[in-house]
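User: Just a sanity check before I run the rest of the batch. Below are the structure tokens for the first item. I only need the designed sequence back.
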């Protein structure tokens, strides 16, 4: 039962990497071009230009959102790459992979909860798939019977 568990672990890792790549496409487009009505354009302009003070640092809401978006992309890409590394180098150590799968379930579960509360469908689907893959991997990974 190790092969399906490892395959599912890989799929969860690749879902993280895919999320990071798709999420980073956001940085190559101009969201202002997508706005059609005047009220949305006013709000977007306010987000980009209104400066406020955060503990001595001046920033705009747009810059703050961009920073959080970059953090999320880097975090998911790094976690996905770390998981691919674990699979490649610790394939035979089922106990470590099972523990890593459990940690990934906790992380993706938290990301899934936040996404369900605050975001839209595409990240919900990718984090849901990733959580499902890691949970299934956790269940299926067992030590080989001698």
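Assistant: Here's the designed sequence for the first item:
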């Amino acid at each position: 039962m190790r092969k399906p568990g490892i395959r599912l672990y890989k799929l969860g890792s690749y879902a993280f990497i895919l999320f990071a790549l798709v999420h980073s496409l956001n940085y190559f487009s101009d969201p202002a071009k997508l706005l059609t009505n005047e009220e949305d354009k006013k709000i977007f302009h306010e987000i980009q230009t209104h400066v406020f003070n955060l503990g001595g640092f001046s920033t705009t809401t747009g810059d703050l959102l961009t920073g959080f978006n970059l953090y999320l992309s880097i975090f998911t890409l790094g976690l996905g790459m770390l998981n691919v590394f674990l699979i490649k180098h610790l394939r035979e150590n089922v106990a470590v992979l099972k523990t890593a799968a459990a940690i990934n379930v906790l992380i993706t579960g938290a990301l899934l909860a936040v996404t369900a509360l605050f975001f839209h469908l595409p990240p919900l689907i990718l984090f849901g798939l990733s959580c499902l893959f890691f949970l299934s991997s956790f269940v299926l990974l067992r030590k080989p019977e001698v």
